[in-house]
Write a structure and sequence with these properties.
CATH class of the largest domain: Mainly Alpha
Number of domains: 2
Number of helices: 9
Largest sheet: 2 strands, antiparallel
CATH architecture of the largest domain: Orthogonal Bundle
Order of helices and strands: EEHHHHHHHEEHH
Strand order of the largest sheet: 1-2
Strand content: 5-15%
Shape: elongated
Distance between the termini: 42 Å
Amino acid sequence: MCGIRDVRDYRIHSDREKKIITGGSVFNIKAKSLRLGDFTKEETKILYQSHTEETGQIFAKGALDAVWELSEGQPWLVNALGYEVCYEMKANRDPSLVITPEMIYQAGENLIMRRETHIDQLADKLKEERVKRVICPMLLGADMEETRQDDIQYIIDLGLIKKSSSGLQISNIKYLMRYLNERNCRGAQGSV
């Protein structure tokens, strides 16, 4: 079973008591939380190559670079882009058709315009205060020393940010910027 959230982060809303009950149900038991890490560029290439081996459909020069640019290896995006471009875009279902970078970019736009569940869920998460406490300072270049580590880990688990050799950075900035503009951060950080 896989979800966008750890079981501990689910909340049950009580209509009778008009409050949020934390911790979920007694049946929500977990042994451990696992997060599938981002694919490397090479792993992304291998995954798409397996499609070529299975169907004969090839990817033009630059197509896999476009996949990487849009996904940065985020597992759901890597797979969603491949499925969209090869199966959902009817004109591309013919395996003799070469998949071009332009087709990959169109697949990315299609996912956004359809507000696919994963992207829509991430957009909804951007409204949460604990997400804003991390994302907004990052976007505004503000000091993050006071930021709670639990909040940072939560945002990493959602796939909105990632750790790099230079510190924390926004994941998939093109998707994030479609749903978050600077005005959303002003209230979280005060006047900018």
